[in-house]
Amino acid sequence: MSKGSLLIFSAPSGSGKSTIVNWLMQEHPELNLYFSISCTSRAPRGTEQNGVEYFFLTPEEFRQRIENDEFLEYEEVYENRFYGTLKEQVERQLDQGQNVVFDVDVKGGINIKKYYGERAMSLFIQPPSVEELRRRLEGRGTDTPEAIENRLAKAEYELTFAPQFDHIVVNDDLATAQAETLSLVLAFLAAPSTPTVPSAPSAQ
Q1: Labelling 114: which of 5, 31, 106, 108 has CA 20 to 30 A away?
Q2: Which residues, including other chains, have CB under 8 Å from residue 85's CB and lie 6 or more apart?
Q3: Please, what is the Cα angle at 75 between 71 and 80, to 5 degrees?
Q4: 178 near 23, Cβ under 8 Å?
Q5: From the DSSP assignment, how many helices (H) and strands (E) are in the chain?
Q6: Are the C-beta atoms of 42 and 136 separated by less than 8 Å?
Q7: Residue 54: phi, psi to the nearest 5?
Q8: Which pLDDT does position 192 carry in this prediction?
Q9: DSSP character for 193?
Q10: What is the pLDDT of residue 191?
Q11: Starting at the edge strand that comes first in sequence, how are the strands of the sheet with 81-86 ordered?
Q12: Secondary structure in 3-state letters for 27-68
């Protein structure tokens, strides 16, 4: 079985990244895409199971694994609330031939790309403008005006990292952005499968 590849998706909040990633995974099962299963130090919610949605660790276990350099990337979102991706888990999924999808923040995306190099393709999903992003966030109706300002300030900062990604997909029209993303993914997944062994000479 050939090893899987890695696809990294990052974007400012409200860019439509998760919509595009979920569409790819649901509508194109032939791509054999699987999310990397992350770790978190928060408690399971609802029907969440260890090893399915997340690996659930205590903050102490998480710190120990950071100490042991076991994470590809991690973040302490609030005090004692960690999220991260274990190197060992990603390798396990790749060995099973899965194409592993990362839906991560911008810095996490850059770190994973640095670690895996050519085995990974990184995509930055970009809103058409900060004004459009403001319109989308206000349209959701889920954030306070203060939270929206914080998200926009963070988005402007994150947009400065876009050139460090392999490809930038501007999500102005969702169907167009989905088609562009699919085409980039197909090209990337097709590339490594080129045979590296010399082909036998054809019979004359």
Answers
A1: 31
A2: 36, 38, 39, 71, 72, 73, 74, 102, 104, 108, 112
A3: 105
A4: yes
A5: 7, 9
A6: no
A7: -150, 165
A8: 53
A9: G
A10: 85
A11: 54-56, 38-40, 81-86, 71-78
A12: HCHHHCEEECCEEECCCCCCCCCECCCEEECCHHHHHHHHHC
Reported as type and span, the H/E element at residue 88 is helix 87-95
Q: pLDDT, tens digit, for every residue of 55-75?
A: 999 999 999 999 999 999 898
Q: Which residue has the tokens 């109706």?
A: 141
Q: How far is CA 112 from the centre of its chain?
A: 9
- Return the SS3 of 127: coil
Strand order from edge to edge, sheet including 167-170: 33-35, 99-103, 6-10, 120-126, 167-170
Report pLDDT for 1.
65
- Collect the ranges in the chain with pLDDT lower than 70: 1, 192-204
Q: Which two tokens stand for residue 134?
A: 């403001």
- Whole-prediction pTM value? 0.85
CA distance 173 to 157: 23
